[in-house]
Design goal:
Elements lengths: L1 H14 L3 E6 L8 E13 L6 H8 L4 E2 L2 E2 L2 E12 L9 H19 L3 E6 L3 H8 L4 E2 L10 E6 L2 H8 L2
Parallel strand pairs: 5-6
Antiparallel strand pairs: 1-2, 2-5, 3-4, 6-8, 7-8
Length: 165
């Protein structure tokens, strides 16, 4: 956690590559980072083997544009999501993800977008954790050691609900 915050987060902020959000307890006198997450814009590239039906599901409208199949989609990337091990009892992973998705939806309300993506190691409990938030594994050919791509297509009620607040 510390390595990313010290070596990358500030540089990514300055370059406009991502935004990092710190979670801390406002009631504490001493500033303690309980966890953090970073969000960025990303291009989701899908394999050519995807069916037109799957492509249309991702796009929400069409599978083709100007006669060619759509194989790249704008996405909101959850680039980092981490709890501070020193205070792991003070912030659950579930709560951290709720903060992350809430912030993400605030940005989506202003900019649009319908696909959220993240990458994680192929570890069953991690994949299960993200699935409880509606993420699904993107089916493609993964090689040993590859990070697994998970995506969530935002539902209309998730997007509209935010617009009404």
């Amino acid at each position: 956690m510390e390595k990313f915050l010290k070596e990358r987060a500030i540089a990514f902020e300055r370059m406009g590559k991502s935004r990092t959000f710190l979670i801390f307890d406002e009631d504490e006198e001493e500033f303690k980072v309980l966890g953090y997450f970073s969000l960025a814009l990303q291009v989701l590239k899908i394999p050519e083997s995807f069916s037109n039906r799957k492509i249309k599901e991702l796009d929400g409208f069409n599978a083709k544009i100007y006669g060619g199949r759509i194989l790249e989609f704008p996405a909101i990337l959850i680039g980092q999501l981490a709890k501070n091990d020193l205070y792991k009892d003070r912030l659950s992973g579930f709560k951290l993800m709720q903060y992350c998705l809430s912030t993400l939806l605030d940005g989506q309300m202003r900019l649009g977008g319908r696909i959220v993506m993240l990458e994680c190691k192929d570890i069953p409990y991690l994949i299960s954790f993200y699935e409880q938030f509606g993420f699904i594994k993107l089916e493609r050919d993964y090689q040993g050691g590859d990070l697994i791509q998970l995506i969530k297509i935002l539902r209309e009620d998730e997007m509209i609900e935010r617009n009404d607040t």
